[in-house]
């Protein structure tokens, strides 16, 4: 199994990796299929199913699908250009994807929210169709947005084609137990093994440059969030809070006013800054998803700004370690809220951040595995119930708490010797089983929990 650090951490657009980025990626893939096809296309249609239908409006799935069919991609998303193109599509009912003819697409009629049963493969399903001059469908593909911006066709899902097609990597660990065994035999850290796997598929220079860019985008996102106030879009009237919390923390600095636990407010402010940007449709990095995108950057920023001895030169090590843990969770359970609830999103993010922090603070592979285990264990059972289908409540604050748990988990692990009672593999399997047993209304449908108990007019 190999899942690159650049698959786990992808530069993209808010508010949701599964509901915004995934559909945009699916649309891009469908356009490629059309380009490779001999047919003469005249129009497009799309239908959204399961969670993509239930929380699609709140998560901007409709917008992402339309823009994707017009040729937009998450990595190069330009907000102002997107607004202009959307207005044009609504006025002309036509999209102009590159290397294809102009195609009829009226969002009102040609994009359908299907509130019937889920498609068979996954809770996040969508069907994209291309039509001929008579309006008959001549090409159709079903896509599943399986979390974190990952997309699979029906056939890929059935074949189990999830993470890897390339040559074998030097350290092909599929479980935490295998990871620890390989670390012991090789004498390498988790980050060193992950780096060797990455280098076997690419080159050192692109790895360093890519990691630097990821941290740059994450940190820029924190800074934008810490300097922007106002009300978030979507109709809930949620006010941005990261800036005011950060302003207050800065004003209190050096005044000896604060209890030690105020450090938690710094972590929350960093995480909330990212998730407020995400909720506003800004640029974020999936870590491992958009909804959970604040946890890991907040922990890195906390480490860099508040922990003596921290150095930006070890951010690669942090990201590689976190990606190794995220890969184990994705491979053996899920990072999708629609599949397994928020334990799979903020829980996974917290485990990844705990592992990364433990590693850069000198943890052994056993302590790193322990840190991830503690963080994930104490998110087990957490449901996904976003109010009004927006990635705002409880998501924004929850990222702050996920960061705080990650730091506590790393700290606890560093106080031990790596031996512990519950293996990470057992927690990942428990998360998978709990997710499978979880009622659908708690899996990103907004049909239960806070979503039905909090007034959202
Ligand atoms: S509750 Fe958690 S899983 Fe659900 S949308 Fe919010 S962050 Fe994502």
From TrEMBL:
InterPro entries recorded: ASB_dom_sf, Fe-S_L-Ser, Fe-S_L-Ser_mono, Ser_deHydtase-like_asu, Ser_deHydtase_bsu
Pathway: Carbohydrate biosynthesis; gluconeogenesis
UniProt GO MF annotations: 4 iron, 4 sulfur cluster binding; L-serine ammonia-lyase activity; metal ion binding
Reaction(s) catalysed (UniProt annotation): L-serine = pyruvate + NH4(+)
Residues in Serine dehydratase-like alpha subunit domain copies: 188-451
Single biological process term from Gene Ontology: gluconeogenesis
Coiled coil region boundaries: none
Keyword Iron: yes
Cofactor entry: [4Fe-4S] cluster
Enzyme class, spelled out: lyase
Keywords: 4Fe-4S, Gluconeogenesis, Iron, Iron-sulfur, Lyase, Metal-binding
Claim: Transmembrane helix is one of the keywords in the record: no
Lineage top rank: taxon: Bacteria
EC identifiers of the protein: 4.3.1.17
Serine dehydratase beta chain domain boundaries: 4-155
NCBIfam families for the chain: sda_mono
Similarity-based family: Belongs to the iron-sulfur dependent L-serine dehydratase family.
Descriptive protein name: L-serine dehydratase
